[in-house]
Fold this sequence. Notes:
Blueprint: E1 3-9, E2 17-22, H1 25-32, E3 34-40, E4 45-51, E5 57-63, E6 70-72, E7 76-80, E8 84-90, E9 103-112, E10 118-123, E11 129-133, E12 138-141, E13 149-152, E14 168-174, E15 177-183, E16 201-205, E17 211-216, E18 219-225, E19 228-233, E20 238-243, E21 248-254, E22 258-265, E23 268-274, H2 287-294, E24 301-307, E25 313-321, E26 328-333, E27 338-340, H3 347-350
Parallel strand pairs: 1-5, 9-27
Antiparallel strand pairs: 1-2, 2-25, 3-4, 3-26, 4-5, 6-7, 7-8, 8-9, 10-11, 11-12, 12-13, 14-15, 15-16, 16-17, 18-19, 19-20, 20-21, 22-23, 23-24, 24-25
Amino acid sequence: MSQTKADAASGGTALPLGVYASRQFLDWLLAEQISLALTTYQSSRLLLLGASPTGKISGFERIFERAMGLFTTTERLYLSSKYQIWQLDNVLQPGQDYNGYDKLYVPRVGYTTGDLDIHDLVIDQQGRLVFVSSLLNCLATVSPRHSCIPLWKPPFISKLVNEDRCHLNGLALEAGQPRYVTACSRSDVVDGWRNRRREGGCVIDLRSEEIMAEGLSMPHSPRCYRDQLWLLNSGQGEFGYLDRASGRFEPVTFCPGYLRGLAFWQQYAIVGLSKPRGDDKTFAGLALDEMLTAKQADPFCGVMIIDIQSGTVVHWLRLEGVVTELYDVQILPKVQRPMALGFQTDEIARLLTLDSMEPLFGETV
């Protein structure tokens, strides 16, 4: 299959990575009128992928230390980093552009949380920011005074403690409310999940606190879509859904990589793939290795677009170079070519945008 290379920028310089895609990937982005946002904690980047005027994929990066959880709308991004959560807002009006980009996301609000090892984060129906703290084994929200406000912990976790016992990681919204979480084990001792990576994973219903499914291998990224609960059985490289009646995971598509990050658009699932770290015991001994060998496949880092009706991979994008792992994948609807400001250059100091002027003492007479 032929490949489309990307125009890439990092504050005006070339990206230290290669971006390659299947022949019709760019046409798909244009036809669906979407762009993609990706995070990678391995190289601390927020990546924005869209379409450039040159007929290539537009790739834009900004550095956020240990970028992980991501929640997006057309006008706003929420991003977790090593010890902060950032809210980035688009400052451009419809029809306006900035250096050829139709969206410019600027960090406007930051919450300093400390290193809670924040994984998935969402905005619920009430506008509350809810995130997974893997370190504390709980769901939490931001606090105006403290690192966080704990909201919920699994019933098998005996107390709130900074010991990453079960590796709680994924969070799914249903009807605008947090509903399901994934964990790599039900361990209640520090770092206990690492010994249960192959088949200790589970899905928990937040309302009933029941274990919906078990026997999974390092599950990630639960998402409710079209009356199904989808997730990634990462330790086996499987994208699929959960039969809620039986609690059985139904694989739909095998993807050659360690899976994290899942989003949906129309009949498509957008799945993030990572290269397993060869020198890290976290990724050793998983069934993924055996399946890759059986299929004579090499793992890669990138994105696969899967038709959920057929399970077929219809498009793909591959990242090569400095980025070898992804954490999250999100969609930017009605965005063609996005960019963002970061803190590595003085551009964020020079760019000034103003809201409409308001009277100091209320309405004038």
